[in-house]
Each structure stands twice: as C-alpha cells, then as structure tokens.
Amino acid sequence: MIEEPPLLTIRKDFPRPTAAQVDAFRGVPTGFVCDAMDGTGALSLSIRPIGDGRDIDCTACGPAICADNGPADLLATLAALHHVQEGDILVAGADAHQGCAAAGDRVMGMLRNRGGAGFVTDGPMRDYAGIVSVGVPAWCTGLTPASPFAKGPGTVGRSVLIGGREVRSGDMIVADRDGVVVVPFERIDEVIDRLARVRELEEALDADVEKGFCEPLDFAEMIADKRAVFVD
C-alpha cells in the first residue's frame, strides 16, 4: 500500500552558476550553445516562445529552479515563487499535460516581482494579454483558457523531466526565439570554453557567405572517392 506523499517537497539549497558564468551566456544564440554541446541540450520543439515571440522579447539565460507539478496542477510552481532568486528561470513541469494552463499572468507577475528572468513549461499558458503586459519571457506549448488546480503533490528545487530532457535546479537555461537549451551544471565551464570556437567558426562562415560563397560540399573529392555518384 502506497503512503500519501507530502504535498510539497522542497530543496532550498542547490549548486548555482556564478554571475560570471551566467554573463558568459548572455546574448549567445541557442544554436551556438547546442553546437558547443555537440548538437545536444535542446528541449522539444513543442516548447516555444509564447506567442512565437511576437509581443515579448523572448530571450533569457539564467539558473533553473525546477517545480515538478503533476498534470493539471501548479502547487509546486506557486511554492517555487517563494524561493526564486534574482535572475532565475522557473522551469515548471506539468507532465506535458495539455488540458489546462500551467500558469497565467498572475504567476508571471509574481515571478517578475521576485526578479525571475523567465518561465519554461511543457504545458500551455493562459491570459496572453496579461502575460504580455507583465513582460517576462516565457516558453510553453501554446495557449488555453482552462485553469489548473493547486493540490499537489509536487517538488521544488530538485529536477524535472521536460521537453525530453532532465533539467536539474542549478542547470543553465539559455532560451531565445529558436527554443530552449539546457546546459548541465557540471558542463557549464566546458561549454563556455567551447563557445569561443563555435563563434569563430560561425563568424568565418558568415563572412564567406557575404562574399558569395555558395558551394559547401567538395563534389570533386566526393566523386573521386565514390561517396557521391552521378546517374542518368
């Protein structure tokens, strides 16, 4: 027989990136971050900028604070608001439930008041006009007018499975109009180091394209070693 869990389980202290580490990701495109992790780290494309970024500048980076809610619930999200620090990104899991909103404009307003830098969820949101007025960047699966409950159980400050990945509190979140990327806490310095090379390669290719470059494959070599063939 299963025992009733506590309504809330909260981890208040978890490792956090330094201000310098956060600053190293500021303004960096999510594509660069993925490249620095060998193409990994992106959440599912179902999690996208609210309103496709039409009315809010959906760019943010900062430490994740995770709220693991059950379907149709937001108790853990509400509890997480008590523990959000300046610059945090609240990552609210809803088990990918699409039947009601994971949060609305009042939650976004309280997140703004706590100094939160953004909100990420695997459910839809509601109160679009109010969210735009609040102005906190958000990433979700869409919009719905239906409201969630606040019954629990849930956890705060641990981890959450969202968008096909495990996100742990303290991981780095980098998000823009292309989507959301998660950098595991223990890889932050490694990824920062690799970003310089990624940027160098990107800028070099951009310069070549501006000069007219349009043939990225060496077809002569591919024909010679039979990796490519011409047919009638």
Automatic annotation (TrEMBL):
<protein>
    <recommendedName>
        <fullName>Putative 4-hydroxy-4-methyl-2-oxoglutarate aldolase</fullName>
    </recommendedName>
</protein>
<keyword id="KW-0460">Magnesium</keyword>
<dbReference type="InterPro" id="IPR036704">
    <property type="entry name" value="RraA/RraA-like_sf"/>
</dbReference>
<feature type="binding site">
    <location>
        <position position="127"/>
    </location>
    <ligand>
        <name>Mg(2+)</name>
    </ligand>
</feature>
<dbReference type="GO" id="GO:0046872">
    <property type="term" value="F:metal ion binding"/>
</dbReference>
<dbReference type="Pfam" id="PF03737">
    <property type="entry name" value="RraA-like"/>
</dbReference>
<dbReference type="InterPro" id="IPR005493">
    <property type="entry name" value="RraA/RraA-like"/>
</dbReference>
<feature type="binding site">
    <location>
        <begin position="104"/>
        <end position="107"/>
    </location>
    <ligand>
        <name>substrate</name>
    </ligand>
</feature>
<feature type="binding site">
    <location>
        <position position="126"/>
    </location>
    <ligand>
        <name>substrate</name>
    </ligand>
</feature>
<keyword id="KW-0479">Metal-binding</keyword>
